[in-house]
Amino acid sequence: MNPPTPGVPNWVDLGTADLGDAIRFYTALFGWEAEVSGEEYGGYTTFRLDGRATAGAGPLYGEGQPTAWSTYVATDDADEIAARVEAAGGKVLVAPFDVMYQGRMAAFLDQAGAPFSVWQAGTMRGADIFDVPGALTWNELTTRDVEGSAAFYGAVFGWVARESSMNGMDYIVWEHEGRPIAGMQAMDGEWPDDLPPHWMIYFAVADCDDSAAYAQSLGGRIVQPPTTLPIGRYAVLDDPQGGTFSILQPSS
């Protein structure tokens, strides 16, 4: 199996106030199997789809920390990325450290305050499955500083911000080595003032409306009802602990 491509989002995980209930919710919603680690990993859980790693979840460690999904970008040198983050005006939240033999990770804030992480693969490479129902299909930065973010992620990962549009609104597609790998949209006046910039994750589903209704029946909440875009039909959901994520039924 080829190593993950540096500079490309390749893993997401959930920090949650109730790991047991998160396992109940997500395994039911996406058909995932939960592989719970031992005490040496703090009960960190790897979700698998058809036996392949698709996402992770673990308990919260900081007091007052909200339940939230995190986006990880693959790298072959987490320490080098940490230096670039600081040089570009970001902040190192968690300095690079080894996760046993599985890999090396670090967590950061970008120049506008959006959190993200990097993963330097050891025996654990990241997700093994993408773009099928129940798997990660897109990562999207929402920010109030589009120009600053374009400069920041360009300096850190070599990404190129390509102007595009989505449903008549300005949209940025991040490209890495000529390949679209993520998106960015501006937080305009319609966004709540107290909502910080963040990375949104999208999981693919076969039927957006059915999945949104099922998530609600499992104790989740529909934040943005199913909406049709040129790329497909999507909805924004909260899990029972308030972890926000999106689902996308791609256009056929």
Strand content: over 45%
What would you call the structural class?
A: alpha+beta
User: How much is the radius of gyration in Å?
Assistant: 17 Å
Largest sheet: 8 strands, mixed
Termini separation comes to: 29 Å
Q: Order of SSEs, N→C?
A: EHEEEEHEEEEHEEEEHEEE
* Range of helix content: 10-25%
In the predicted model, the low-confidence regions spanning at least 5 consecutive residues are none
Strand segment count: 16
Mean pLDDT: 94
The spatial strand order of the largest sheet comes to 2-3-4-1-5-8-7-6
Number of DSSP helices?
A: 4
Shape: globular
Outline:
With 252 residues, this protein is of the alpha+beta class. The protein has helices at 19-30, 78-87, 146-157, 208-217; strands at residues 9-16, 33-36, 45-49, 52-59, 68-75, 91-99, 103-109, 115-121, 136-143, 160-166, 169-176, 179-186, 198-204, 221-229, 232-238, 244-250.
